[in-house]
Amino acid sequence: MIRTSLMFAVATMPCMVALADSISLGSAADATLIQEPTGEYALGAAYNVYAGRIGDNGGATIRRGLMRFNFSAIPAGSTITSVTLRLYMSQTQSGSQSVGLHRCSLAWTEGTAFAFGGAGTNAGIGDSTWNYQVYPTVSWPTPGGAFAATASATKAVSAVGFYSWSSTAALVADVQSWVNNPASNHGWVLKGNEAASTTVKRFESREAAANQPLLVVNYLPPSNRPADLNSSGTVDGADLAILLSQWGAGASSPADLTDDGVVNGGDLAVLLGDWG
Fold first, then answer.
1. Residue 35, phi then psi, degrees to nearest 5
2. Domains (ranges, CATH) in the chain?
3. CA-to-CA distance for 265 and 263, rounded, in angstroms?
């Protein structure tokens, strides 16, 4: 009888997949690292962040953006499936340039320095600068920040407007690690074309009145994988064996995935739909 029921359940099983959730996050902190040989300058509270190299008249120095998001609203144990960052570029020069998101490896703080324009202003206590993670007490090991050499995602930006850094395996891995270990979340460094002058790009920050950074994260909450009966992180043959061993059991069984009061073909369909 069980064998007949199993064959019927598989043959009539609807296409079922675990349901993913999506969350849209504004940046929790953003700033610009300003390379200037004459002092420490910052833009922690400014309306913009910059990435690239400024023109020769300004000294052809480098700007690097910093951006961090808070993932506390994503349930612990969730599986990240995709990550997309949308930024609004409000000022540009020198045509199309590539801007990369590099995973930052050390903590930094936004600070309160405010100015219009990419030259910045004198850093105050708590600002992040070219030489300091936290001015004036904690220095970067190497001036210009600490970040992965390889970008997690890149995007060519040209005219003023919105741009999206589409999901990559590296972006997903970044966010997954930050959800798993929030203390390691130091965000990304926005790195533009630094090989040539007059390549700097200006993006709106979280302080801007509109068009702030937006990170869209799709994830699979732990509660959406009830078929992982042995909590191994994968729905596989071991979970199928558990379900079959409880075939016909009542509502108290964790294998009653449909909550209909009995472990039967409907629960098998859920498990097979969530396989893997």
1. -80, 110
2. 2-18+225-273 (1.10.1330.10), 21-222 (no CATH)
3. 7
Task: Burial-class residue 169 by CB neighbours within 10 Å (0-12, 13-18, 19+).
Answer: exposed
Q: What would the two tokens of residue 40 be?
A: 């420490």
Work out the angle at residue 263's Cα, subtended by the Cα atoms of residues 4 and 7, and round it to the nearest 5 degrees: 20
pTM for this predicted structure: 0.78
**What is the DSSP secondary structure assignment for residue 71, as one 8-state letter?**
-
pLDDT digits (tens, 9 = 90+) for 200-240: 999 999 999 889 999 999 998 876 567 888 877 788 999 89
CA 199/CA 53 separation, integer angstroms: 5
Check if the beta carbon of residue 120 is closer than 8 Å to that of residue 61: no
- Read off the pLDDT of residues 6-57 as tens digits, 9 standing for 90 and up: 433 333 333 334 457 999 999 999 999 999 999 999 999 999 999 999 999 9
Task: State the CB neighbour count (10 A cutoff) for residue 119.
Answer: 16
Tokens (6 digits) for 171: 């972006």
